[in-house]
Amino acid sequence: MTSSTTAPRRPRTARPKLDTIAADAVELAREALLEVTEPGQVGEHLRVEVSGERLVSHVFECTMPGYRGWSWVVVVARASRAKTATVAETALLPGDDAILAPQWEPWSERLKPSDVGADDLLPYREQDERLEQGYEATGDEDADRVALWELGLGRARVLSPEGRSEAAERWLEGEFGPRQTSGRGRRGTVAANCTSCGFLAKLSGSLRGEFGVCTNEWSPADGRVVHLNYGCGAHSETGPQDEDREIPRSTGVIVDELDVEVEKVAPATPEPEAPAAEAAEEPAGEQPAVETPAAEQPAEESSVPAPEAAAETEQPVTAAEAATAEVPEADSPEDDDAPAGS
Fold first, then answer.
1. Domain containing 81 — which CATH number?
2. How many Cβ atoms are within 10 Å of 219's Cβ, its own excluded?
3. What is the DSSP string of 143-192?
């Protein structure tokens, strides 16, 4: 049979009792705070806490601006068989609702790329997972030319696969990542990508298959690394099918206006038939001999219209009127017998 085993009992620790002499030393604790603080920074006495055997902590309100929820703490101790207490330490401690600074982090984890300027100097990192050893010259001109010039490996360290992967992921998720194309001009799409744009300068190395640099000054991505599937309105090959061409700057702007002015013309009065035409139609023997002085002849018999009437009458002349106007007046026998002065 195996003997039963029992766990050893833990010794009971007596809870320390509140020391009366140390608990009554409130003024002693306040005087200790006034020696290390500025006037007006120590408030009312809040409470007394037991910290150990003949050891208590006096808690005072902190009235400093910006330290809401903080408290002043003065630890008072009393030696064995002593009649007075002494001050052990003073401190400013935060409470449950105190405003605290963020947890401290080393600069390498706290610093962000957006915090670094062009003139800021970063420390050298000997072990950087984003870099690896570069190409070393071998003395072979052909091999060195390919490695140093074409591949750009003539440096102490170059990008490692991990460094290229991190850069590619960052550029893909950035502002100039891939965009959808649509021939209908839907919102959020482009007509063509950077793969067919003449302003794209591709990168070298393995990143050449996905990224390039935009060189169009009219593009929002000018001088930035763009994905080959990115696109914008400054594409070099878009817009040839548009009917509205841009007006050349040298010709200026042509304004074509048409103004119509309506003028009311007085109705033309019908021209009476000439008496000469009636005389031509009647027989010559039956025409009465009527002598009419030239001064008493009516103005209507005149074949030449007045200038005012010609100006007012702008109606087109019909063919019948034109034929009548061209027929000369017939000479009657009475006209031959008339005196020359009449």
1. 3.10.450
2. 22
3. HHHIIIIIS---SSEEE-HHHHHHHHHHHHSSTTS---B-TT--TT-BSS
Distance CA 86, CA 88 (A): 6
pLDDT tens per residue across span 229-258: 998 888 888 765 555 555 555 555 556 666
Residue 234 belongs to some domain of the structure: no
Taking the alpha carbons at both ends of the chain, their separation in whole angstroms is: 183
CA distance 44 to 40: 11
Q: Tell me the C-alpha distance between 93 and 100, whole Å.
A: 11
- Sign of the alpha-carbon torsion through 102, 108, 113, 114: positive
pLDDT in tens, 275-307: 554 544 555 445 554 454 444 444 444 444 444
Tell me how many degrees the CA angle 234-239-245 measures, rounded to the nearest 5.
110
Query: Mind listing the pLDDT tens digit for each residue in 50-84?
Result: 999 999 999 999 999 989 999 999 999 999 889 99
Q: Does the predicted model carry a pTM greater than 0.70? A: no
- Check: CB of residue 312 under 8 Å from CB of residue 266: yes
Q: Give the chain's domain count.
A: 3
**What's the domain range around 190?**
162-227
Claim to verify: residue 27 and residue 38 sit in the same structural domain? yes
Domain boundary among 172, 195, 227: 227
Indicate whether 151 and 196 sit together in one domain.
Answer: no
**Domain end among 212, 227, 242:** 227
Q: Is 174 a member of any domain?
A: yes
